[in-house]
């Protein structure tokens, strides 16, 4: 109701403004908007308008249609021109200007910028709630999508603008419409860790396990990035904790690798398989043993509590202890030994954990050893202390 009033006020004031322009004539042509300018042109004797009157008198319907077409074309051109201004005002969050331009007939469908956004998309991305509400009230298409098929809801979800996501959902925005590569608004919000937006999307019927082309679910994306609130929301909504990416990596594997202990605990509690290994036979325990720092100890402890097999070999025959030793991961070596890991276990080349201690120091340029960072092998006495532990 309030926005309708605003619309009327804007309409009345813009008509008044036009009246002024008409009286004064297009003397200041440069500063006139295209709307005002085209009105001026009509005043100067637009031949089409003249014809229009004559034909109206003659009551010739086919010619009338031609006139209407020409007038329509003119109106569309004007709406488009005003639409460009509307787009700019929408992107900047200038709600007054947006209202005024809508009142003057600006097109809501213009597309600008690298992504070919509509005014609704750009204001959603930029977090301008009042503009979004104004555009929705004016009838902007909530399901339109940009060059890469991102909708306004996708953009608000990605950026974490909760009230905007709610406004779009209330206006009937398609909750599962996906970006290229099948990334849904839920996936984007989960990946970015926007728990409240995730919650709103789930309430609105978002498909909880809708995965990307690489079969990455929203849960996997949240687990990878350590977003424990989002992980819990998705699990409560029935997300499958065992759903792997196309590489065979589970959410638990990626959370373990990245040392996200609270996420690991949430996944295990929800029944994630502690043993699930990827194509190389790398299980969560191997991944966690490679992670440097205290998080490694916490994750390895959780996995062992969930009965992960302590000496499970990967496809190369490496046990978690061998992995931890080769990365100089002192804390984890200590924990694994304490929990009964086999210290004489050997890799396929016959090397023991002791042989491999701090091997990462000598493997510069090997990307699989990229996690040999300070706190691991580079600590001065790490090598000696691990060798001691393994005796
Ligand atoms: C002229 O066209 C308009 C819109 O198409 C129509 O409503 C109107 O009846 C037509 N008038 C005549 C005189 O044909
Ligand atoms: C948007 O898409 C949803 C889901 O397909 C549909 O229910 C709704 O009617 C659409 N809204 C508009 C305005 O097209
Ligand atoms: C995950 O996989 C494990 C091992 O197959 C199974 O025992 C467990 O029930 C699965 N969890 C869920 C929630 O499906
Ligand atoms: C890691 O844990 C040790 C032992 O509990 C503690 O002294 C140390 O401060 C922790 N380091 C970090 C970075 O949390
Ligand atoms: C782990 O195994 C022990 C012994 O078999 C069993 O009592 C316990 O319930 C298991 N724990 C989990 C989390 O499966
Ligand atoms: C420990 O590993 C060695 C070498 O692979 C093996 O021979 C031995 O049986 C293992 N010990 C146990 C208790 O599994």
What does this structure look like?
It holds the Pfam family Ank_2. Keywords: ANK repeat, Repeat, Signal. ANK repeats lie at residues 115-147, 148-180, 181-213, 214-246, 247-279, 316-348. Residues 1-21 form the signal peptide. This protein has 391 residues and is mainly α. Among the domains are: 84-104 and 115-138 and 149-173, Ankyrin repeat-containing domain (Serine Threonine Protein Phosphatase 5, Tetratricopeptide repeat); 181-273, Serine Threonine Protein Phosphatase 5, Tetratricopeptide repeat, CATH 1.25.40; 285-391, Alpha Horseshoe (Serine Threonine Protein Phosphatase 5, Tetratricopeptide repeat), CATH 1.25.40.20. Helix content is 55%, strand content 0%. It has helices at residues 2-24, 34-43, 47-58, 61-92, 95-103, 119-126, 129-137, 152-159, 162-170, 185-192, 195-203, 218-224, 228-236, 251-257, 261-269, 284-290, 294-305, 320-326, 330-338, 353-356, 382-389. Mean pLDDT is 84; it is low at 4-60. Residues 241-242, 271, 273 line the site of one 2-acetamido-2-deoxy-beta-D-glucopyranose. One 2-acetamido-2-deoxy-beta-D-glucopyranose (NAG) is lined by residues 306-307.
């Amino acid at each position: 109701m309030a926005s309708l009033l605003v619309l009327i006020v804007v309409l009345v004031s813009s008509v008044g403004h036009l009246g002024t322009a008409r009286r004064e004539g297009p003397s200041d042509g440069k500063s006139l908007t295209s709307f005002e300018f085209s009105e001026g042109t009509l005043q100067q004797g637009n031949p089409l308008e003249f014809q229009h009157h004559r034909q109206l008198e003659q009551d010739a319907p086919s010619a009338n249609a031609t006139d209407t077409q020409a007038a329509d074309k003119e109106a569309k051109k004007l709406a488009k021109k005003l639409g460009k201004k509307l787009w700019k005002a929408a992107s900047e969050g200038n709600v007054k200007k947006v209202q005024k331009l809508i009142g003057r007939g600006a097109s809501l469908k213009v597309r600008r910028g690298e992504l070919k956004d509509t005014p609704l998309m750009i204001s959603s991305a930029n977090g301008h709630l009042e503009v979004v509400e104004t555009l929705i009230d004016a009838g902007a298409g909530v399901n339109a999508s940009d060059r890469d098929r991102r909708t306004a809801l996708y953009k608000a979800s990605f950026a974490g603008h909760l009230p905007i996501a709610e406004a779009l959902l209330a206006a009937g925005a398609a909750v599962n419409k996906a970006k290229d590569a099948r990334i849904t608004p839920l996936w984007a919000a989960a990946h970015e860790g926007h728990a409240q937006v995730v919650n709103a999307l789930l309430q609105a019927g978002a498909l909880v396990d809708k995965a990307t082309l690489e079969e990455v679910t929203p849960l996997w994306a949240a687990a990878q990035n350590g977003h424990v609130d989002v992980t819990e929301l998705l699990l409560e909504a029935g997300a499958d904790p065992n759903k792997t990416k196309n590489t065979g990596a589970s959410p638990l594997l990626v959370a373990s690798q990245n040392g996200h202990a609270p996420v690991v605990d949430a996944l295990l509690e929800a029944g994630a398989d502690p043993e699930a290994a990827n194509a190389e036979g790398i299980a969560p325990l191997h991944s966690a043993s490679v992670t440097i720092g205290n998080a490694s100890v916490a994750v390895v402890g959780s996995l062992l509590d969930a009965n992960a097999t302590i000496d499970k070999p990967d496809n190369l025959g490496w046990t978690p202890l061998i992995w931890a030793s080769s990365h100089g991961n002192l804390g984890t070596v200590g924990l694994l030994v304490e929990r009964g890991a086999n210290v004489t276990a050997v890799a396929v080349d016959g090397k023991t954990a002791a042989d491999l201690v701090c091997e990462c120091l000598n493997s510069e340029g090997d990307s699989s050893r990229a996690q040999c960072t300070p706190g691991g092998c580079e600590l001065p006495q790490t090598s000696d202390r691990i060798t001691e532990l393994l005796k």
